[in-house]
Amino acid sequence: MPGNQDPLLSAKLADNLQEIRDRLGNSPDLIIRKFELVTSLIEVAAIYINGLNDKDIVDEFITHIMAFDTLGGDGPQLNSVNGIYQFMKGKALSTGEEKVIRDWKELFAALLSGNTIVLVDGLAEAIGGNTSGGEVRAVTEASTQVAIRGSKESFTESIGTNLSLVRRRIKNANLWIETMKIGVVTQTDVAIMYMNGIAKESVIQKLKQKLQGIHIDAILESGYIEQLIEENKYSPFPTLYNTERPDSVAGNLMEGRIAIFVDGTPFVLIAPTTFFMFFHAVEDYYQRYDISTLIRLLRFMCLIISLFGPGLFVAALNFHQEMIPTPLLINLASQREGVPFPTFIEALLLEVTFEIIREAGIRMPSPIGQTVSIIGGLVLGQAAVQAGIVSPAMVIVVSLTGISSFATPAFNMALSVRILRFIIMFIAAFMGLYGMCVFSFILIAHLCSLSSLGIPYMSPMGPFIPQNQQDAVFRLPFQFMKNRPRLISQKKHNKRIR
Amino acid sequence: MKGKRLLLTVFCMLAVMLLTSCWNSRELNEMAIVTGMGIDKAPDKDEYRVTFQIVNPSSTATSMGASTGQPTITVYSATDRTLFGALRKTSKKAARQLFFAHTQLVVIGEDMARSGIDDIFDVFERSHELRLNATVLVSRGDDANSIMKILLPIESLPAMGLVKKVRNTAAIWGENRDITIFELINGITGEGEVVISGIRVIGDKEEGKKKANLEQTEVKAIPAISGLGVFKKGKLVTWLEGSEAKGVLWVQNKIDQTTVNIDTEGSEASVAVDINYSKTAINVELREGVPVFHVHIQEEGKISETRGFMDLSNGDEIAKLEEQLAKQTKEAAIRSIQAAQRLESDIFDFGNELKRLRPKEWEAVKEDWSSLFAQGKLDVRVEAHIRGTGMRLKPYLQNKDESN
């Protein structure tokens, strides 16, 4: 890596500037503004990268730092290089963050993260002022986790904005933030945020260790970090939760979890994660408990449908015809009359078609996306039934499954269920209900073996924690939700309601 | 290392799956769904003639595709020494393997019933496909084969239609009952005897087979539930009808809902009482070697219709009706028990009751129970209550005495 070989700045301004130009490959977005001080004829240069800075702040910074020059020489110290430097340092402070830079590595890190660097001829030190800004996306409404009731804010790509969005919700000194840079090349800003006193020390340490253990060139999204720190890399289930809602992060912090912010993405990771988090939505807490509980139950029902729907249908039709009520069986038999494929192939055909429609629709601009779903869903489905390629009942089962899979609030969990659905279909076609039962056992055993930062994934069900049942499958009224999750938060601060 | 283990696990699981090679997987369009079975005695031979009613899926009403114009069912029959042999022999005629798990109805031909039914149900218990909850009927005055062939209006599947008929009449009229193979086997192996409802074709059997028969408002052949066949030692001995049949069900505690037309002063059977609750308790004891049957019937009903004037707002009138209802119920019960006694057939399971309550005394009498049963004394008590008079009290007809 360049910059590691000669760490120190040179005392000559021209040399320094040349070095910067060389290292950045004469990049056109490098702006160098040179001044000659009127009072002492010393050369000074302000450098910054175009677009990473707020232009007004840069100007203000430069004006401030040069203020003595326009005021006229005052006192002997301003005639010497050192005197000027001391003055500048003092003035630079007034604009915000200021730091003294001595080596190249530091200089480039500061420059490339939006600082303006001031170099003085004759000095081997530079002053960096944080002037970062520039074009960032405004805080907009959440696009992946929409809530009817609740905050309309969502995270942006700027880590500073994101941290402040949470800070505004928890006005407490115990909201602690630690930052680090991950990504050997990208030097991406990563921050972890937790409630000091609520989050478990051991979990925080474990997370920090894991983050420090990452040695990868680039971190472009929180997904990189998620996959690198996951404990169960071969599991189909996600063991880290992500959200783009500040209120969701705030809620999870208050339960003792830790949030991982990554610069450049609106998706914030939350750890430790439990299975049931994927079926909770922030709105569950904003609406009354009765409807929230019912909706949660509905979501679990949808999970079961989207996992087992086609599998169960195939198993029942191929192996367990006696389980179907007679009128229904005859109805299904009359539909299947003339369908040229075995039930399993029929199911697979439709499921794959559905996946194609879904994948094609997702990446399209939304007006075309709708066309895709109309052609795919309505026209294709109807035509396939009329042509006798598939039976209408199968279309119903596959559509119901598809719709059910959208009822899971967390997209990544819905994706895992999608994979498992196909596996279950295969097993159902080979071994019927027996196979499905065996696979479910394996699946549950696997789920119970998972952990997220050392916390059991299936808690509070496996291990069973009676005092945390109010907020897992059910959502009890707030007066009953007295305890924070026991395994996740510190024991002494376990009471949520005093 | 972990990945290797995982791969191995996946491999093992796949192998387990593939080695089963879906041995009992069957597609719906490769099976013939049997909804009804008829069992007859083959003429001149000691063989069964078994008739299968098979659903024709492409012509059931729910089908989306173009209807083929065929009837909703088709019938195959085969003869063999065993039922199972016969059902496998059908493969010569049927293009698809028969599937028995949805057999709703078993009809036994009258000849078969008269020559004994005790030995035909083994295959129903032994087979994993055949179900024990299929309804059993005896075709009255006919063979089961012809019952199986008759198409029904409204109900697209005749076997299911017949089952619904038995259940319907058992539920609201109470002269027949829906008896399943399971109950039948229990009856045969128990100490008592069994009863099976009869079914009779009214009209032209040949017309009944045709789909064209259904294209008119009144069909030319209709199977109707008719009578209660009384068995003795596994053989059909006689048919009970009307109030005798109803009495049997009353004593058997199988009345769900029924209607009794009770007599009033001066006019016979002029008040219809809708019985909607009935419970029968039985106790049997031996007094000096002779069994005494205590039958206690509790019933409740409401008045549904009166043919003449009656002041139903008067509690005494109601009490009179209750008394009359109890009397008529008692008569029906006694008549049915006496009828069974004449036949020496303990269709009420009094024997089982004695065995259960007083096993030692039972041991002494079990050898000649049927003759003792015939001599048994009756103690029938009926508690009848009328709980309502419908939507009005007094009928709209004027009281003749008052108007004069």
TrEMBL record, chain A:
The chain crosses the membrane at residues 258-279, 300-319, 395-415, 422-447. GO terms for biological process: spore germination. Keywords: Membrane, Transmembrane, Transmembrane helix. It holds the Pfam family GerA. InterPro entries: Spore_Ger (IPR004995), UPF0353/GerABKA_families (IPR050768). The keyword Nucleotide-binding does not apply. GO terms for cellular component: membrane. It comes from the Bacteria. Belongs to the GerABKA family. PANTHER family: LEUCINE ZIPPER PROTEIN 4, SPORE GERMINATION PROTEIN. This is Spore germination protein KA. The lineage of its organism: Bacteria, Bacillati, Bacillota, Bacilli, Bacillales. The gene is gerKA.
From TrEMBL, chain B:
Residues 24-200 form the Spore germination protein N-terminal domain. It is a lipid-anchor. It is found in: Membrane. This is Ger(X)C family spore germination protein. It comes from Paenibacillus albidus. PROSITE patterns: PROKAR_LIPOPROTEIN. It comes from the Bacteria. The keyword Lipid biosynthesis does not apply.
